[in-house]
Amino acid sequence: MKKTPRLNEIVESLWRTGVAAVHGEYAVRKALREEGIGEIGHLAAVGKAAAAMCQGADGFLTARSRGLLVTKYNHIDDPDRLPKNIQVIESAHPVPDRNSLLAGRKLLDFVESIPETGSLVMLVSGGASALAELLPANTGLDELQQVTRKSIADGYGIDQINRFRCRLSRIKGGRLLQNFKGRRVTTYALSDVPNDDIRVIGSGIGSDQPMPGDDMDIPESIRPIFARAGETRQSPVAATGFDYRGRVIASNSLARNAVAEQAMRQGYRVIVNQDLNRNQSSQEIGWVSKMMSEQLDNPDQRGIYIWGGEPTIRLPDHPGCGGRNQHLALLLARAIHGMDRVAVIVAGTDGTDGPTPYAGAIVDGGTWSADAQQALEHADSGTFLKNRGALFHCGPTGANVMDLVVGLKT
């Protein structure tokens, strides 16, 4: 089998182009300049890309400004570049920890402390749901962690998981801003959810409206956890009394289009540029891989293939090592096995894939081997791909707009 290192390098470079287009620092600075924002009095940033987003707001902060930053452990690439007067709390993702509860309390206190004459800029990216939480008195961290783990293992989409967690939250689904007494709130968000709904991003932590579907039925698999938590339905009420503007400033479509434009500049034909979540809130990973494989299998369609979204995977009781991107990459490796001039990168735009330090994987026609099937069956794609030298590591990216897949067939 002829190796294709250059193809691997091309798809990685294109993937990085897409991620750079939705970087939090760039997106926030651009949005603030476009809207003519002057001095920011109070700044709250929450999410895996929150540190980068804060850097984009630095030129709009003064010595009088106050701020709070909540992000994932090890997601601050350069602490010296963070704006001054910003308190930093790091917590866990995807499963919340005690620091997540500390962050939720600090965030509520910060919002409540803003005076009637004050204004607030909120910067929200994916990950906010786990990184900052405040629970009712009759609910504990254990119940929240169980709901999160079980929902992920059962293959629910991020928008559905956010709705489950919102039911146990005092600060999600518009509830945080019900405590704001100032004049104006402006929320800028990087979207990691289908349909780019700001009421769903971060479980609506930066929204002034209830999350749509907040009253959805709780699935049987996690209903006992809610029963033990003694859930009392908090009626969602829209926040009032201040001017509100919410805007999505970066999305998966923006990343995909940046890849397509760069590919065309390099002389490639773009065969596919597809939103995987276009027709339903989530897509099961087996269906997604079958659709992609069929598109790649057409011998007459040579060029660049771009997909974006967040497929779902149902895990076995005792999964191995890996994440959804590594699993999807291995499924695609099986589909392109033996193809000489094909390479595909499957990676999370935030630089992480499940509970691993990797963003995903880069596979080609020589990646698959017979023992890979067992890795798929045991959700142990990471172990197999590591042994094949196919895992992709980039570290935190400063972005978070779901997953991005780039394929090249020449």
Question: Can you walk through the features of this model?
Answer:
With 410 residues, the chain is an alpha/beta fold. Helices cover 33% and strands 20% of the residues. It is built from 13 helices and 14 strands. It has helices spanning 5-20, 24-34, 50-57, 98-113, 128-131, 141-153, 158-166, 223-229, 252-265, 285-296, 324-335, 372-377, 381-387, and strands at residues 40-46, 61-72, 86-91, 119-124, 184-190, 243-250, 270-275, 283-284, 303-309, 311-312, 342-348, 360-364, 391-392, 403-409. A six-stranded parallel β-sheet has the order 3-2-1-4-5-6, sandwiched between helices. A six-stranded mixed β-sheet has the order 7-9-14-11-12-13, with helices on both faces. A two-stranded parallel sheet has the order 8-10. Helix 1 crosses helix 9 and helix 10 (285-296) runs parallel beside helix 11 (324-335). The protein is globular and about 65 Å long.
Give the spatial strand order of the biggest sheet: 3-2-1-4-5-6
**Unreliable stretches:** none
Termini separation comes to 16 Å
Question: Topology as H/E string?
Answer: HHEHEEHEHHHEHEHEEHEEHEEHHEE
Q: Tell me how many strands there are.
A: 14
Number of helical stretches of at least 4 residues: 13
Helix content: 25-40%
Biggest pleated sheet: 6 strands, parallel
Q: Helix/strand-derived class? A: alpha/beta
What Rg, in angstroms, do the CA atoms define? Answer: 21 Å
Approximate shape: globular
